[in-house]
Design a protein that fits this description.
Layout (H helix, E strand, L loop, with lengths): L7 E5 L4 E6 L10 H11 L1 H4 L4 H4 E8 L3 E10 L2 E13 L4 E6 L4 H7 L10 H15 L1 E2 L4 E9 L2 E13 L3 E8 L5 E6 L15 H5 L21
Antiparallel strand pairs: 1-2, 2-6, 3-4, 4-5, 5-6, 7-9, 8-9, 9-10, 10-11
Amino acid sequence: MIDLKKSSVRWDRENYVPRKIYGFDTKPQKGTPRQIAERFLRENSGVLKIGNLRKEFTYDKTAESLATYTVLYQQHFEGTPIHGAWLAVHIDQKGRVFMVKNDTVPVFKLEKKIKTKKAAFLSAVKIVEIAKKKAREYGELDTGITKEKMIYALKGNFRNAWKVKFGTLNPAASWILFIDAVTGHVFDERNVLRKIDGKGLVFRPNPVVTLDRDDLLDQKDKDREVFSPLNS
């Protein structure tokens, strides 16, 4: 079990939950990154103030970089995913956990504020109708409409919602809507398509392979002399 007194911790003072813990290293462990992450989370559930990993979380993915793995889990409440409520376990190549990020919601708050009666919820068909109407306001619908039931958490307030995604043309956009599951009100809308004009340099496939060097470290986007031969 990790010792918070010997680690660096960023706290959620309102709920007294550790949101980010770093500055520690566990012993090297065998197994896949997911297996290592799940052992770590089970052993440290009390420290992290999370519930039962198997019942309240679903494995999302393992992201691999040059030197680390990040294993992601999403929190659920009564089978419904919670928007923005993630656990991220960071593991090095030797199987050591060195950081964990905890953006979960305390279960007691969910039980107190979320109404679980689903009879009054709008149907998926009605949600699609609302999304199509909004799409006509934005442009010409260019993709299918995907939808997912969510619990939306914002500044201590929670509501049952549908998360809806679709793309449009004229103008081109990629939309995410959050629609109240009871009233049908679109309370959050985002165009996540980003556009930019400019030029840049890329590596193919990457500097480690191209330069045949495995000692390169991330310098937070700082240009370095070692990359000069790759600019031609």
